[in-house]
Amino acid sequence: MTGINRAIQVIGLIFCTFLPRQFALRSPDSTLNEAQAINFLFYTLVTCDSWQIGYIDNRMKTPSATPDAILQTAFGFWNSKVLLTAVTFDLFSTLGQRRLTGPEIGKKLDLHPRGVADFLDALVAMKFLEREGDGADAKYFNTPATALYLDRSSPLYIGGVPEMLNARLLKYWNDLPEALGTGKPQNETKHGGKNIFDELYADPEKLECFLDGMTDLSRINFEALADKFDFSRYRSLCDVDGTTGLLCIEVAKKRPQIEYITLDLPPVEAVAKKHITKAGLADRIRTATGDFFQDPLPKADVITMGMICTTGTWRKR
Fold first, then answer.
1. What is d(CA 142, CA 108) in angstroms, rounded to the nearest whole number?
2. Coil, strand, or helix at residue 237?
3. What b/e string do you get for 286-310 counting C-beta neighbours within 10 Å, with b at 16 or more?
4. Helix, strand, coil percent content, the chain, rounded in steps of 5
5. Using CB atoms within 10 A of its CB, is residue 104 exposed (0-12), middle (13-18) or buried (19+)?
6. Tell me, what DSSP letter sits at residue 59?
C-alpha cells in the first residue's frame, strides 16, 4: 500500500469514526466486526485494493487505466484540511523539539480526546509527524521538514501560508462553481462590494494574516536573492510593495553597508515595523508609505518589486 493510500485510509477512518452510531455498515463478509466493516466500506469507495474486495478481481478483468489519481485528487481536501488544522492549532510549534503523547498534546491544545489519536496518526501517515511506540503511550514528534518550516521558533517558518489558506482561501474555493456560473468574485468583495484590499485594510487581524502568508511565500526566494545577487556595488535599496520588509531584512543581514527602504501603503506600515524590529534592524531599515501607481518612488540605487500582480486592476498592471 502506498503512503498516499495509507494517509487517505487513516483520514477516512477519522471521518467514519464520527458517523452516528446508529449508521449500520454491512459488508459481504458477515464475520467482519464494526471496525473492519468501516475499513471495508472506505476501501471499496476509495482505494479498491484491499483483500476484503478481492472477489471483484475474480469477476472482472482489471483495466490498464486506474482511478488512483482521480480518487486521490477528489479526496485531497481531506489531507489538506488535516494539515491546515494542525498549523492553525499550532501543533508543530507546540511539539518543538519535544516528544509528547496523544493525551499530552490534546491537553496542551485543548482538544476533545475522542479524535486526537486518529488526527495525529493521520499526520504520521502523511509524513508530517513521526511516532514512536503504539497506543496511548506512543510519542509524537516533528519531522525534519515540519521542525524547520512549521515551528514558529524556526527562522524558516512558513506557517503563515497554510494559516492564510485556512482562514481565507479555503472557503472561497468552495464557491468555485458559483464563480464559474456567474463570473463574479467569491472573495471578501462578494457581500460588501469593496475592493479585496480595502476589506483587508479595514481588519488589522485579517491584514496581518494575509501579509504573513505573502511573507512566508516569498521567504525562500528572498533568501536566495540576498545570497546570490551581488549587492556590494550599491549603497541603497528600496523594495516596492515590501509588505513586512522581508526582502530588506534578508539583504540587510548580509550587506550592512546599504541603506534600506521598504515601501507599501499606510495600513501596512505598522506590520512592517513590527517585523523589522523583531529582526533587530530598526536602525538600518526605514519604512515609507505611498501608492506606487500614483506616487513617486523613493530614490535608491536598486528598486525591487515582487509579487505585485495581485495589486490593482488588470488595466493598471
1. 16
2. strand
3. bbbeeebeeeeeeebebbbbbeeee
4. 50, 10, 40
5. middle
6. T
Does a structural domain hold residue 54? yes
Query: Of 149, 167, 193, which marks where a domain is finished?
Result: 149
d(CA 309, CA 317): 7
Question: Looking at the DSSP assignment, which residues form a beta bridge with residue 238?
Answer: 261, 303
Cβ-contact 167, 231 below 8 angstroms:
no
Find out whether 120 and 110 touch, Cβ atoms under 8 Å: no
- Amino acid letter, residue 205: E
Within-domain flag for 64: yes
C-alpha cell at 308: 505585485
In this prediction the pTM is: 0.62
User: Could you read off the pLDDT tens digit of each residue along the chain, which spans 317 residues?
Assistant: 455 555 555 555 555 444 443 344 444 444 444 444 434 443 444 444 433 334 444 455 666 889 999 999 999 999 999 999 999 999 999 999 999 999 999 999 999 999 999 999 999 999 999 999 998 899 999 999 999 999 999 888 888 888 888 888 888 899 999 999 999 888 877 766 566 677 777 778 778 877 887 887 788 889 899 999 999 899 999 999 898 999 999 999 999 889 999 999 898 999 999 999 999 999 999 999 998 888 899 999 999 988 776 555 444 54
Bridge partners (DSSP) of residue 303 are 238
CATH classification at residue 102: 1.10.10.10
C-beta of residue 231 within 8 angstroms of C-beta of residue 260? no
Torsion angle of the four alpha carbons 25, 27, 31, 37, in this order, in degrees rounded to the nearest 10? -50
Nine-digit cell at 19? 458517523
Interatomic CA distance for residues 36 and 29, integer angstroms:
10
Q: Is residue 45 in a domain?
A: yes
Collapsing DSSP to helix, strand or coil, 305 comes out as strand
Q: How many structural domains does the chain have?
A: 2
